[in-house]
Amino acid sequence: MLIYFKQAYLEIANFILNSLDKLKMEEIEAFVKTIEEIYHLNKKILVVGVGRSGLVGRAFAMRLRHLGARSYVLGETITPSVEEGDLVVAISGSGTTQIVVAAAEAAKKMKARVAAITSYYDSPLGRVADLVVYIPGRTKVAAMDDYFARQILGVHEPLSPLGTLFEDTAMVALDAVIAELMKRLGKNEAELAKRHANIEVP
Q1: Transmembrane ranges (predicted)?
Q2: Which CATH number is 65's domain given?
Q3: Number of domains present in the structure of the chain
Q4: Percentage of the chain surpassing pLDDT 90?
Q5: pLDDT in the model for residue 111
Q6: Domain assignment of residue 194, yes or no
Q7: Could you tell me if residue 90 is inside a domain?
Q8: HEC string of the chain?
Q9: Residue 89: its pLDDT value, please?
Q10: Could you list the residue range(s) of the whole structural domain that residue 93 is in?
């Protein structure tokens, strides 16, 4: 029972665990330092992503807000304008998501900094960003002709479709960034809890 569930669970968990060796610590360090700088300068951090990457971005923006940062999600009606010196965190596994790339390009015109969370350095998003944080993950849909070749060779598609591995790995990596920032900014869980939503909407 639930054979595919167990296989998928292990596939995703093992991928995330093994991805730690593929992350570039100098990129993570630069990203953390940039957020620290933005925090101390009281500038804004604006996060943008589409679909499930957008959900990852929202979770990251929420945790940044809990730390006391001026974080927002681009596209929300109450999000302020991007200004010089702000930081835009753009999340796209492929680095080609049009809305995300357009937002990054617009941010650059406003003299804001752009940090890209992506699997592809040489992508429209990677090229426009000031800082790229590489997150491994399968982000492309396999071509139909490749499907038949895999069937003949007995090679099967992974049980984590589309951008699942990128999104899950990005979520864990950004949560780890929050943990690092907590220590560097001298925050504790009790302080974060004070900024957590205390009105639940039914």
Answers
A1: none
A2: 3.40.50.10490
A3: 1
A4: 74
A5: 97
A6: no
A7: yes
A8: CCHHHHHHHHHHHHHHHHHCCCCCHHHHHHHHHHHHHHHHCCCEEEEEECCHHHHHHHHHHHHHHHHCCEEEECCCCCCCCCCCCCEEEEECCCCCCHHHHHHHHHHHHCCCEEEEEECCCCCHHHHHCCEEEECCCCCCCCCHHHHHHHHHHCCCCCCCCCCHHHHHHHHHHHHHHHHHHHHHCCCCHHHHHHCCCCCCCC
A9: 99
A10: 3-188
In a domain, 196, yes or no: no
Mean pLDDT score across all residues of the chain: 88
Q: What is the model's pLDDT at position 188?
A: 81
Q: Which pLDDT score is estimated for 93?
A: 93
Q: Which of 167, 180, 191, 200 is catalytic?
A: 167
Q: Is 167 a catalytic residue?
A: yes
Where is pLDDT greater, at 190 or 14?
14
